[in-house]
């Protein structure tokens, strides 16, 4: 490929037509000139040629660009325009979060004027919206790309892989970076783009630098430079005025509500983005704001309240991106998903609670908790930056300046250093990486957590005495895209003749929660749970809820009456279908034990015996 780049709007060079004369790009992608003008206004546009040049001449390109500069949506399109999706090759773009994958994919498909699932598609766990031989650009989560490696360890279908939001340092991102570095040694022609908002570009570049001097593989890419290239793209940011709390806040949900109301009363037009920790907090804040609107109509009329978190149904997620109606003010109440992965137009005010939900694992007690913990300074800066996208904005931090300067940690701890590593170890083993301790990690996991993971997998019968995957159980467990304990439970259900029931339980366990929760309805929802409660415990309770849902003909009224989340139950049905296909593939016969709960309990115990304890008087 020559270093000539095709610029949108000019005549297409011949190089971009394939042998049969079919043009790689889609003619209608440029038909709407307004969308084209919008694309050219993004900060990343003036770096288009530089980015394509670096990708062509370097194995790895590290792009540091502030959120909102257009890197997630534009760079993949530049790659298509330059012919990287030519001749049946795929361009893969990973995101750490499912919601971001869906949002970016639909945005890019819209800009290119194609149907989502055709040339541009996406894959997340339990959902594949791509077409073999048609899809050229595929958005996917880091975890899904790791699963693809099980069938194709060198990712031979891909010509370029872009790892976006690399600074979030999820477990999957870290494993993926380590594996991509390995793949590149075997496939020097694979190009990597590591994109991120705030990243230690230097440490990432050191990580990808080729250490040992060795004979260069002879390939036509002899011009290829092995040193990673670093490019910085400035964002479009206006000045953001930061306001701190005068004294520490007692109840941050309450503080968020009063801050939003005071912005609405005193500040000029512009949407508000609120950062809270999770679904419960978000529902509570929206509930309180709604009450305020009803009780105090005049003061708070004109507020459009929208939640945003990963468990939200797709249609409701879409509302966040729709333009604000005239004379109204949109208030998006979000988890830290809006911190980096998504750009919301029209945000002028940010309210930062200073907290997020983070995973913390204690390898000694083997307990993993989702804890509401203070964010890092890097996250606080990201959050504030969301306010200066369209015009000068304001950020209201619900903590003191003294705390920000002196006590807040500078950076977050990579997830791999605070998580249970069982799933991570089994993935590496399934990919044939036996020397896990010698694996090249961007950040080393703790030895205690690693030993604990190996112990659990050994006791589940997934690893043998030499710490290799056992056959067939180890390989079967690796095939199921769920926690290994749940996978083992599914495999054991074959022997106890209760696979239909266990697959239902596994589907429910893969969803955050099937119950509706929130402030003020605790008593009613507890009473509703009692209607389904089983002496054998939650797993059998889930079966009762699922049965009730099917008997009601999957009715949303039934769900509402029983405080069951209708969207979650629809997702359970979808996941259950997928799990049935996987069970069939790994040789599990689907069979129901009717009402023999003893069999179900045996299967659950086969997977979760490590969580057993004995009651001491």
Automatic annotation (TrEMBL):
Transmembrane segments: none annotated. SMART domains: DEXDc, HA2, HELICc. InterPro entries: DNA/RNA_helicase_DEAH_CS, HA2_WH, Helicase-assoc_dom, Helicase_ATP-bd, Helicase_C-like, P-loop_NTPase. Residues 248-432 form the Helicase C-terminal domain. Gene3D superfamilies: 1.20.120.1080, P-loop containing nucleotide triphosphate hydrolases. Residues 52-217 form the Helicase ATP-binding domain. It catalyses: ATP + H2O = ADP + phosphate + H(+). Coiled coil: none annotated. This is RNA helicase. It comes from Lupinus angustifolius.
